Amino acid sequence: MVEHLMVQQQVKSPWEHMVGVICLNLTNRKQVKAVLPKLFKKYPNPISFIRGSSKTQAKILEPLGMVNVRLKRLKHMSLDILTWDYKDATKLYGIGKYGSDSYRIFYKNERPKNVTDKELKRYLKNG
Asked: How far, CA to CA in Å, does 24 sit from each of 50, 70, 79, 83, 85?
């Protein structure tokens, strides 16, 4: 059953949620679902990720591609989230409309009017 859940339904915190959103960019959820448990086991929170070895992080993220881009976004977002007010997700580095819509749906229990992502639309329709 877990394979049918969205990545956003398998994370435990807003930080993990945003990591998932960044990892989902230009890849599929099956790949991301394989990488996130390894990443979160090694780096369970933004501080451990910020302090972590970029080389080790890159190795974990490698199956997703775009490693340097992802790593930069994840490091910056992890710094931003430490002072974030948990209102507008687009204030976090690397988080755009998809990430904002996803955060509003899964953490704020809102139903954004103009969701464009097909998976989020499907979730809203069925959820």
From this structure: 20, 10, 20, 24, 23
Secondary structure element (H or E) that encloses residue 125, with its range: helix 118-126
The string over 91-105, giving b where at least 16 C-beta atoms fall within 10 Å of a residue's C-beta and e elsewhere, is ebbbbeebbbbbbbb
Express each pLDDT in 3-28 by its tens digit.
566 767 777 899 999 999 999 998 88
Tell me the longest C-alpha to C-alpha distance in the chain.
41
Residues serving a catalytic function are 117
Q: Which domains does the chain have, with CATH numbers?
A: 2-100 (1.10.340.30)
Token pair, residue 112, equals 């954004």
Token readout for 52 is 């972590």
Q: Please count the helices (runs of H) and the strands (runs of E) in the chain.
A: 7, 0
Q: Model pTM?
A: 0.92
Q: Which structure tokens are listed for 45? A: 């929170």
